[in-house]
Design a protein that fits this description.
Blueprint lengths: L1 H18 L8 H10 L1 H14 L6 E5 L5 H8 L3 E6 L2 H14 L5 E5 L11 E6 L9 H11 E10 L3 H13 L9 H10 L6 E6 L2 E7 L1
Parallel strand pairs: 1-2, 1-4, 2-3, 4-5
Antiparallel strand pairs: 5-7, 6-7
Helix pairs in contact: 1-5, 4-5
């Protein structure tokens, strides 16, 4: 949505520094917050990169690619990447990272809402991190993912448990950015309605779930 695009366009460098401080330094307070509350970001990064290192995964669609930390890692693994985001500043940061690697020919950049995107061919895998937090109807997105991907989909899902989830909801609401949090039951029900629960693996990670769909 437009609100999500505006929010992340302004948040790009701060968000990027959670992973790597090459565009903006993090304060000591931020680093403490990372240690306490952002373990899930590292977990989902490590799990995804471990999955994509296999030879049978050659082409990857990174949906909500953000500042491109996954894109860089996929390129280091020798993959062909399509990087999609709705925030122009996120795409720009990713482009600069890719250019510094000299890998522009290995990446296609798409500035578009995923639901509007019509790929010309199917991908081996899709990386969908920090995306379902802003999705009003997860079933529609899941069905499109199953259609667009040949082998595997890696998804992070935010849970709705505890004080931190409640605080995050309030914080995003103040910035007019929609936020959707999930119970395990709602997640399983969404996967079931999309017809992919039986081929999905759900792992509990810090402040959420990691879903791998294997076709």
């Amino acid at each position: 949505s437009k609100d999500v695009s505006i929010f992340f366009d302004g948040y790009a460098h701060d968000f990027s520094s959670i992973y790597k401080e090459d565009t903006k330094k993090r304060s000591s307070f931020d680093k403490l917050m990372d240690k306490w509350f952002r373990k899930g970001i590292k977990d989902r990064f490590d799990i995804t990169i471990n999955e994509t290192k296999r030879d049978e995964i050659n082409t990857i669609l990174d949906i909500g690619c953000g500042p491109g930390h996954f894109v860089v890692k996929f390129l280091e693994q020798g993959k062909k990447v399509t990087a999609l985001d709705i925030a122009p500043s996120m795409i720009e940061i990713t482009k600069k990272r890719v250019q510094s690697m000299g890998k522009e020919n290995e990446v296609k950049f798409i500035l578009e809402d995923y639901l509007e995107y019509k790929p010309t061919e199917k991908f081996d895998a899709a990386c969908v991190m920090g995306f379902f937090d802003y999705v009003n109807d997860p079933v529609i997105v899941l069905k499109k993912l199953i259609n667009d991907v040949k082998k595997e989909v890696y998804i992070s899902i935010p849970d709705n448990k505890g004080l931190l989830a409640w605080q995050r909801k309030i914080r995003y609401n103040q910035r007019n950015c929609p936020l959707f949090l999930y119970s395990k039951e709602y997640l399983e029900d969404s996967l079931k309605k999309a017809g992919c629960l039986e081929i999905s693996e759900i792992i509990d990670i810090d402040r959420g779930y990691f879903v791998t769909i294997r076709k």
